[in-house]
Amino acid sequence: MWRTIAIYAGALAVGAFALQWLQYNYLAQTMTPEFYVVLIALAFTGLGIWAGNRLTPKTVAPAFERNGAALKTLGVTEREIAVLELLAAGSSNKEIARQLDISPNTVKTHIASIFAKLEVQRRTQAIQKARELGLLP
């Protein structure tokens, strides 16, 4: 990281020196100040993009994998997982029913089944326990 900072500082110093040198030349006397403002803006933009690319980590988060052993042990079905994901997203029973194209009573049945399998009493508890077991990201 110190190397990157030193390179960035060196580039700024070279830019400042170049501007001082241009000030004493004929080119500096014939160009308008707006030209130099644009030139400085472009230089800082380029340096910022370069520094951002160098300092930003290129890692990608690993994909989420469900805990298959917990799914089998608890006996949670794919439909119950879909309901659980929508619960975690904050959807109401009616919204879940619309998204999964099932009746609200079926949603209630799935939620009751999830509560029983996870041994919880509330939606928030179900979401928290599902995350702890690796059923939800």
Examine the secondary-structure arrangement and name the CATH architecture of the largest domain: Orthogonal Bundle
Tell me the Rg in angstroms: 30 Å
What about the largest sheet? none
Shape: elongated
Strand residues, percent: under 5%
Counting DSSP E segments of at least 2 residues, the number of strands comes to: 0
Instruction: Quickly give the structural class.
Output: mainly alpha
List the total number of helices.
8
How many domains, as an integer?
Answer: 2
Distance between the termini: 33 Å
What is the helix fraction of residues, given as a range? over 70%
CATH superfamily of the largest domain: Winged helix-like DNA-binding domain superfamily/Winged helix DNA-binding domain
Mean pLDDT, to the nearest integer, reads 86
List descriptors.
0% strand; 74% helix; Arc Repressor Mutant, subunit A; single chain; 137 residues; mainly alpha
Can you give a write-up of this model?
- The protein is mainly alpha-helical.
- It has two domains: 2-55; 68-133, Arc Repressor Mutant, subunit A (Orthogonal Bundle).
- It is built from eight helices and no strands.
- Helix 1 packs antiparallel against helix 3 (33-55), helix 5 packs across helix 7 (104-118) and helix 5 packs across helix 8.
- It is elongated, with a radius of gyration of 30 Å.
- It starts with a helix and ends with a helix.
- 11% of the residues are buried.
